[in-house]
Amino acid sequence: MEDLLNKEPVKRVSQKLKHFDESLSVIVLDSSARTAQDAANSLNTEVGSIVKSLFLRTKNSFLLCLVAGDKRCSLNKIKKILNEKDVSMGSADQVKEITGFTIGGVSPVAHLNPLKIYIDESLSRFKNIYGAAGHPNCVFKIDFENLQKITNGEVMDISE
Q1: Residues paired with residue 155 on neighbouring β-strands, in sequence order
Q2: Is 19 helix (H, G, I), strand (E, B) or coil?
Q3: Between 20 and 30 A from 2 (CA), which of 57, 73, 124, 151?
Q4: Model pTM?
């Protein structure tokens, strides 16, 4: 396997993590973390401790919802929060263009463009949580409080 740490999206995440806290780093997995279940299996942890980064679009903007791996993001709750009728998943092309990541490796941090970020409060159940780090085989470990700080995300109930 090529050196994943040298891939541009992974380097972007790694730099953001190091800038925030020297002790944070990208973990390269032997197996895929493309889905929350894959990541949980690879890390031998609960699926809920995996952060799903869901890229949504509204009529005029994009946002990222960080949801526990064992929960589903509630579009109805997001619509109410934003007071928007039209909220849906962004396309793969939009994800790549706005975040700089491809689906399966969308990180909670180090996006190419600024994004409003909502963090589901259910992630606070876990001592450590794991976010994607720019590639389906790369993740990083962080605690809930620092996830909120590094993303500047707004914590709320956005899951069903």
Answers
A1: 119
A2: helix
A3: 151
A4: 0.94
